[in-house]
Amino acid sequence: VVWLVSETFNYSAIDRAKSRGKKYALEKVPKVGRKFHRIGLPP
């Protein structure tokens, strides 16, 4: 049996998009990106 486990497997598309958006904001606009305290997805 192979378990399908990935970091984003349990998250909805909305949560994944939010995470991507925050990372993008942090890269492109550091001032805006600093307002986000949790950049990635929670474990």
From TrEMBL:
> Reaction catalysed?
a 1,2-diacyl-sn-glycero-3-phospho-(1D-myo-inositol) + ATP = a 1,2-diacyl-sn-glycero-3-phospho-(1D-myo-inositol 4-phosphate) + ADP + H(+)
Which Gene Ontology molecular-function terms are recorded? 1-phosphatidylinositol 4-kinase activity; ATP binding
Question: Which Gene Ontology cellular-component terms appear in the entry?
Answer: membrane
Its topology with respect to the membrane? Answer: Peripheral membrane protein
**Transferase among the record's keywords?**
yes
Q: Which GO terms describe its biological process?
A: phosphatidylinositol phosphate biosynthetic process
The compartments listed are: Membrane
Keywords of the record: ATP-binding, Kinase, Lipid metabolism, Membrane, Nucleotide-binding, Transferase
Q: Does the keyword Cell wall biogenesis/degradation apply?
A: no
E.C. designation(s): 2.7.1.67
Please state which protein family the record places this protein in. Belongs to the PI3/PI4-kinase family. Type II PI4K subfamily.
Q: What protein is this chain from?
A: Phosphatidylinositol 4-kinase type 2
Q: What is the lineage of its organism?
A: Eukaryota, Metazoa, Chordata, Craniata, Vertebrata
